[in-house]
Amino acid sequence: MKPGVLLVDDEPATLFGFSRFMTKAGYAVTEATSLAEARKAISSQRFDIIILDLNLPDGNGIDWIPDIREGYPAAAIVVITGSADIPLAVEAMRRGADNFLTKPVSLVDLDIFLRKSLELGSLRRKNLMHQWLSKGFEAYFGESEAIRKVTELADIAAQNDSTILLQGETGTGKGVLAKWIYHHAPNKSGPFVEINCSGLKGELLASELFGHVKGAFTSAVQDKTGLIEVADGGTLFLDEIADMDLAVQAQFLKVIEEKSFRRVGDVNVRRSNFRLVTATNKDLADQTSAGHFRSDLFFRINVFPILLPPLRERAEDLEGLVPRILASLRPSVPVLSPEVMKLLKSYAWPGNVRELRNVLERALLISHGQPLRPEHFPGLGAPGKPPVTNAPAFSGLAAIEEAYIKSAVETSGGDIRKAAAALNMSRATLYRRLKKIKKD
Question: I need a surface site. Which of 78, 205, 241, 270 has the fewest CB within 10 A?
């Protein structure tokens, strides 16, 4: 992509000469003859360099510099001024300009200044990113009544050592809430150890949790410390615990009851005192009734349950969630138009906050640094909210997904390509989902 230059000057000769030279040098040049035109241009396009004449028909460019620096901190600002106005140019640099050129401007000097400006902009962007990463961001869940109840329960949980069970659909932020509870405990100490139980099965999961000794099984070539042991004095977070194998459930139940365990293949008993937080997107009561989850383990972990509501039930939280997610994706946060926010609120978000983050990240990539517009969010305009009002609030997750897919296909008139685009999935994936729905 060509570096973008905004050239602000009211002299036709300067505009013609500079623009022609910079275009041949490989820059994408946008011209403006007034502050009003310049403000309009910068609101719809990202520029790497801004070349600004100070004396313009509708004001002095020096007064605009602080606004540029605040809104577009990575942009390089080069001021053009007459030789008699050197003090004014110095004042411009004090307000945020990076350098200045005096008229008449040598094209050789201009070329040097452009190269240096690009380097400066690159360094500034890296510095902004470093500051952003160093600062970090406090977890934000929303301001709705539903989410306030969740945070109130989470605050109570943080003040105690009881076992916590976080429930909610995929993408509602159970992992983020688990970390929030850990960080807000008054006596926070020890590590935060996390494992996703759906990613490992049987012997592999047992080895990760309990550890193993050399020779315990074929691939056990050396001793390994398990995560239960690592979590001693801290917090152990088991995500998607409903997917834990029954055999491992039986082993883990003993750990909860006695705070002791054995590494796989070992006879020595070890102890670990940890705070347990679990999470699942399934209804554990139903899983227990179906024989997929041990009832005694369910009773042990269901001490302090917290249910995270889906995003579609708290659309008002988008007002706060969207700018914060954008801030976590880019140091310079783009302004959202009312049309974009209306579009985001009209969508059902079957993937919840996780999908929202993915959609916003994709929109930033599509926009190429320009202000976000509705066309940067393909697929959100249809099919609209799925007909899930009669679906169970928690145990009907599969029913919700099925209804949403059917609604997308119906709204698109049976056109699989359009339905897949609206659902943000490939046609092959949609065909597989429809085949499964038909089979069920």
Answer: 270
